[in-house]
Amino acid sequence: MRWAFWNPVKVRFGAGSFDEVAGLIGKRRYALVTYNQPAFNSLARRLAQAAGEPSAIIDNIETNPDCADLVESCRIFGAAKKAPEVIVALGGGSMMDAAKVLAASRGDFEHVRRYLIDKTPLDETAITPIIAVPTTSGTGSEVTHWATVWDAAHGNKYSLAHHLLYPEAAVIDPTLIVGAPRSLTLATGLDSLSHALESLWNVNATPISATFAVEAAREIMETLPRLLDNLGDVELRSRQARASLLAGFAFSQTKTALAHNISYDITLKSGLVHGIACSFSLPIVMGWAAGNDAACDAALRRIFGADLNEGARKLRAFLESVGVKTDPAAYGVSPGEWTRL
Predict the structure, then answer these.
(1) Over 90: is that where the pLDDT of 1 sits?
(2) Which of 20, 105, 134, 188 lies in disulfide reach of 74, CB 3.0 to 4.6 Å?
(3) What value does the CA radius of gyration of the chain take, rounded to a whole number of Å?
(4) Distances (CA, A) of 29 to 33, 75, 87, 172
């Protein structure tokens, strides 16, 4: 078996590491991509006190960055009086996805649109570096080189992918995640579980990605139920953040697989939150995957035990124990539509 591993992201992890962001920015002009919400406004002020005022603030994205909103985001970015030299993405996966679009845009979403639809190459000399500061534990986008771009008006979803879109640095400070509500904690936690498991039943899996994935999945399944009952526990938040990071490292090498592919259509049609949409089918997909690849089976056994049929039942029971239904019909998917998906 031949394989390779490469991930260029510098990681800073631990309580209080948000204070390192200013040093990572250095003397560069920066754009801040974040939410226009009180908690994030407070963090923005902390950052400005340490690193100076940003050249631009892009705060018009809430969730699932859509082409219609990204046009305005890129316009704001391009209109900065002094061009930003680095982008700080502060928030969940949507903020990091938006930051990657901005980084590739040269201040005009049309450049990204041409890349996504017409396959026109990006100007590699004009891609802006990113410092990613996640405030959720789920997407792993802080250590990947792609972003999800939605086009709700036309019922499409695109993946913006380029090796220069790996963030320059990722700063994971679990104290920033403590305020995440239960619903968000659940959805993002299950998203990271999906990343871990889907990187195992994946044609691009390697021994290193599998090592990350197994550790991530075991930790999520042990930690997440406890965290949902103890949202203010910084130690549990740290464990979940670490597991999400490991899952990010795993699927940064492999991409996702069938459960994610199924999820996008469901989210576009019904608005089902991504973390639930990509996780409810995991036991079904695991049942299909088991027995097809010795390395995958060996990795799954390190998580679920020797009997993988029983392992799929354990996975279903885990999801149902945190309130996630595992029947497609529960999400309005008919048997015929499920077969098509």
Answers:
(1) no
(2) 105
(3) 19
(4) 13, 17, 9, 22
Cross-strand pairs, 160: 147
Crossing angle for the helix pair 67-78 and 93-105, nearest 10 degrees?
Answer: 60
Q: What is the pTM of this model?
A: 0.96
Q: Name the residue with tokens 């005022």.
A: 53
**CB under 8 Å to 287, separation ≥6 — which residues?**
309, 312
Strands 169-172 and 130-134: parallel
* Token code pair at residue 283: 């036991």
The predicted-structure confidence for 235-276, as pLDDT tens digits, reads as follows 999 999 999 999 999 999 999 999 999 999 999 889 999 999
* DSSP code at position 14: S
What does DSSP assign to residue 88? E
Q: Among 96, 103, 53, 97, which residue's Cα sits nearest to residue 74?
A: 103
Helices (H), 79-167: 93-105, 109-113
∠ CA 310-314-318, nearest 5°, is 170
Let me know if 274 is exposed, middle or buried by CB neighbors in 10 A (0-12, 13-18, 19+).
buried
Contacts (Cβ under 8 Å, ≥6 apart) of 205: 199, 213, 253, 254, 295, 296, 299
Q: Which of 214, 199, 193 is nearest to 304 (CA)?
A: 214
> The tokens of 181 are what?
């509500």
DSSP state of 168: S
Is the model's pLDDT at 70 over the cut of 90?
A: yes
- Looking at residue 211, its amino acid is T
pLDDT band at 106 (very low <50, low <70, confident <90, very high): very high
Neighbours of 60 (CB within 10 A): 16
Tell me the one-letter amino acid at 301.
R
- Through-space distance between the first and last CA atoms of the chain, rounded to whole angstroms: 32
**What does the alpha-carbon distance between residue 53 and residue 31 come to, in Å, rounded to a whole number?**
9
**pLDDT tens track for 141-176:** 999 999 999 999 998 999 999 999 999 999 999 999
φ/ψ (deg, to 5) at 134: -75, 140
